[in-house]
Automatic annotation (TrEMBL):
InterPro entries: CYB561/CYBRD1-like, Cyt_b561/ferric_Rdtase_TM
Positions of transmembrane segments: 14-36, 56-76, 88-107, 127-149, 161-180, 200-220
Native species: Pomatostomus ruficeps
Full protein name: Transmembrane ascorbate-dependent reductase CYB561
Compartment(s) where it occurs, according to its Swiss-Prot or TrEMBL record: Cytoplasmic vesicle, Secretory vesicle, Chromaffin granule membrane
Subcellular location, principal: membrane
PROSITE patterns on file: CYTOCHROME_B561 (PS50939)
Primary gene name: Cyb561
Catalytic reactions on record: monodehydro-L-ascorbate radical(out) + L-ascorbate(in) = monodehydro-L-ascorbate radical(in) + L-ascorbate(out)
Length: 251
């Protein structure tokens, strides 16, 4: 730093948990790819394999990218908050786009094969999670990323935004677990109970999903790992409150 102060550092243990979370996330994707590639024939659009794009996109979008978006404020602790907000919104937006591709894949696959839609618990939970996730993203962008919302409105909504962010992440993992079980019962119901390799691999994917969720959840709930506000951000926050609420910072 220009004033001779030591450079900011991360709290003890945070970097290790970040590394573990990313290792788990990449392992999730590799395991999903191995399952679909080795046992389900791979992924191809406008073919009998189009359905397989669904689990791949949902694990990538609604779990891995969503989890990373939630961790942005823990990882980028000393960067400008505006830049961190933009990255947070972009990762969530990318997760939404990829998940939408996965949803389109399953509906088109069902239509081609004459399979009914939206009858299972997995489909109900999954669609509800996606719709609420989209609403959460739109509200977050409208209130926190773009100017116009008052300081008091942001303050009142922020706890709800944080709660629903974690809740939707949990719901996403739950929906994936339901989907894995449903797919196994459809595809290998006769041999699943005999501990066949495909069943073991898919069960391992489920365990990895839970582990990723636990690691991310732990990082989000450690109070000392929360991003501290920078001095200039506190000053800007008070100026913004003065402009939008019409009162002095000390009022």
């Amino acid at each position: 730093a220009m004033d001779g102060a030591p450079p900011p550092t991360s709290p003890p243990g945070l970097s290790a948990y970040v590394a573990v979370s990313q290792l788990l996330g990449l392992t999730l994707l590799a395991t999903t790819g191995a399952w679909l590639g080795h046992y389900r024939g791979g992924v191809a659009w406008h073919s009998p394999l189009q359905f397989n794009a669904h689990p791949l996109c949902m694990v990538l979008g609604m779990v891995f990218l969503q989890g990373d978006a939630l961790l942005v404020y823990r990882v980028f602790r000393h960067e400008a908050k505006r830049s961190t907000k933009v990255l947070h919104a972009l990762l969530h937006g990318l997760a939404l786009v990829i998940s939408l591709v996965g949803i389109i894949a399953v509906f088109e696959s069902h239509r081609a094969k004459g399979i009914p839609d939206m009858y299972s618990l997995h489909s109900w939970c999954g669609m509800a999670t996606f719709v609420l996730y989209l609403l959460q993203w739109l509200l977050g962008c409208g209130l926190f990323l773009f100017p116009g919302a008052s300081f008091s409105l942001r303050g009142r909504y922020k706890p709800q935004h944080i709660f629903f962010g974690i809740a939707l992440f949990i719901l996403s993992i739950t929906s994936c677990l339901l989907g894995i079980t449903e797919m196994l019962l459809f595809k290998i119901s006769d041999s699943y109970s005999h501990f066949v390799p495909e069943g073991i691999l898919a069960n391992t994917l489920g365990v990895l999903l839970v582990a990723f969720g636990l690691v991310v959840g732990y990082m989000l709930t450690r109070e000392e790992w929360k991003r501290p506000p920078l001095a200039e951000e506190l000053a800007l926050s008070m100026d913004f409150k003065t402009l939008t609420e019409g009162e002095s910072p000390g009022g």
